[in-house]
Each structure stands twice: as structure tokens, then as C-alpha cells.
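[job 4471] stage=fold_predict status=RUNNING
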Amino acid sequence: MPSVQEAADELARLFSGAAAGTQGPAGSDLEFLPGPGLEPLPRSPAPADCWAVDGGQALVADARCVQVGVTRAARARWQDGSCTLEEVTGSSVHVLTGSSGGERARSWLAATGAPVAAGAPVDLNLLRDWAEWRLVAASVEQAGPGALVLVDGDLQPDWRIPANWLARLLERAAQRQVVLVGVTKHSSLSRGGAPLVGQLEMEGARRLGPQACWWAPVASRRPELGPGLLVAVARLDPDARFAFRVDLPADAPAETVLGQLRSLSDDAAFPGYPYPLSMADRLAACPGWVRDQVRSELDAALEGAGVDVEARERAFADRHRLMERS
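[job 4471] inference complete, writing C-alpha cells
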């Protein structure tokens, strides 16, 4: 039986850099660059117009064969040093049944123009992701020339949204002189099996100094698998503890765009992360009170529809938690 010590020994080998090779998660469409080099990152003037979009989700009730979930998306707009828009789409409540997701969930996707194949499975992740990317597409249309549109996560929608949809969105953004940028808080990129971003953070402090801002191109998307993409890791503020993965269109001026992000990432509460995205994240989040509120409203509506409390409790009771409490 594998022991704690054996697990620690394996992790120590990974963290020591004994293994080699940079890679993404299984099935990644990225082609990794040999030996990413760190470059100092100069600060560029902040863009006159910046939009940031994020999505949130929560599971409200779970009977395994049927689930109730809530999703929402939000965006913030930053213009000339001030926040000029905070917008939340409102909470969408979805009933999911089986792998198909349920008729109402599929109808919502179709009604909102989701480019999802008719037979594709539908779950809460897809519903939240599509709500978010719809808002990204709307922001591209409303942004001014020279704007950045920031996305929480990488520039890759849910796998059920085809690559040609993203390609058309990037083309439209380029036509409008808008740059889409994805910023990932917790990256799955690795080198030798150990987290790549953490390794680059330590290398950056050692080679360039603890207060240095830097960036390193680490991968590109293979052109036959989707629109051109550059993946970089960047430390965006001298006081930041963390660096982040940043995705850019392959033809974007990477150093200039990352320098613009530097000018948007000096918030004292979370240095090194673009504060328009922090605002969108706060607006889109589905914390416990949102889940509880939706559940309370759902219970009241079910009672009004004649579903008695015993039927509801037997369907949605968390038996694991109840047994652990006994």
C-alpha cells in the first residue's frame, strides 16, 4: 500500500526538477516552446477601454438523476482610470436530467445561439461557460478600438463549443482592433510533472530579482487545431506573490499587451492580477447565500405546485452528510 513517505518522495522528485518536459493537461492542443526564457516586462500605458468578463455557477439541489443548478455571468468596464460599468446577467436556474441535460436546458442553449451539436451532453459547466462567452462576444462588439477584453481563464471555450466559433470571434475582435486576453488564476501547465508557473516564479526571483516584473512565452496552439494562440506566463506587479498564465492571439503584440496588463494589476488587495477581472469575478460569483436563496425560492415554488416537503427532502437530501453527522 503506498505510504505518505512514498508520496512525499515522488513529489520531492517532481519539485526538484529531476524530470524534464513542459506540458499541459491531457488532450491539450498546445505545442510547447523549448526552455521558456524570462524577459523583463516594461510597463505600458493602460488601455483607454478595458472590459472584463467572468462566470459563476453553483449546484442548488442534487438528486443525482436530476440536478438543479444556477449560473450567471458578469462584466466590468474600465475607462480612463475609472470603472464605468458593473453588469450581472442575472441568475439562470437550470434543471439537468441525464447526460442530455434536459429539454429546458437544451432549449435555452438553442435560443441563445449556442453552437453546440444536437447530441452533445449538457451540464452545468457548459451552461455557465456559454453564458460567459456570450458576454465576451457582446463586449467585443461594444468595445472601442484599442480596447482589451479580459476573460477569466484560458482562451478556449468549453470543448463542446467548436473551435471555429472562437476563430470567428477572434477575427471579429481583430477587425474592431480589440484584443482578447485570457488570464488563468490556477494553471495546469507543468514542467517535469511539477507546476510550471510556480517554477517560473522562483526562477524569476532568482534571475531577475524579487521585485522584477517579467514574462515568458511558453506555448502556442497548433494551427491545425484552432485559431493561433500564444500562451505566456507573466508577473505583473513588483509586489505580486504570484504570476499568471496569460493567453493572447498569436498576432497580438505580446509585450505591449502584457505591459498594458501591468498598468491594470497594481491593486493593493490583490497585486499582480488585473483588477477589472477581480471586479467581474466578485460580481459573477455564486456564494453560499445565492445558492441558499435559490433553494428557498425553489422550495416555495414546489410547495405552491403541490409537491410536499417529504417528497422534496427524500429527493434532495444529502445522505452522505447526514450519515457522517450521526
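[job 4471] summary: The two ends are 30 Å apart (CA to CA).
[job 4471] exit 0
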